[in-house]
Amino acid sequence: MTYDDLLALADDGQRYELFDGVLIVPPAASFYHGRIVLELIRILDAYLTPRGLGRNLFTAPVDVRLTNLRVVQPDLLYIGPDRPEAFASPPAIQGAPDLAIEILSSNRHHDLVVKLGYYEQAGVREYWIVDPEVETLTLYVLVDGRFVEQPHDGNVSRSVVLPGLEVNIAAIFANV
Q: Which domains does the chain have, with CATH numbers?
């Protein structure tokens, strides 16, 4: 299946992704997942909006077309203001976002292995994996075409794509 085939499907309210041309239906998100998304939106919005970048933050469901056979819907994503080509062919965002964030759910393998590989190959500059089970944030930065896990300082992760953004990991989970 290609992205054009995906677009031709009737809109039935489901979220769909394409993994090398195979149609994937991600599981419905839990309320806890939704609360984590809201907390991350608050954190990111507090950083982005004062800098005039708030319109560049998106939440699922939005298609990100990495290739014609790889279409994903990150839980959250950020596209820098210097990337107008990402919006050239609606309804999908074209190419790699600068930042992709996934909150782990029942099919952890998709986010930890499959999407990590896709994002790395596509050139996503920064990838966050939030694990609600152990209340962690793992932050990967693309260095020379490979993801490198960023060390965190105690309970604080620092973004490279969003300079000056420090994320208190415990705060993500404190209010959910």
A: 3-174 (3.90.1570.10)
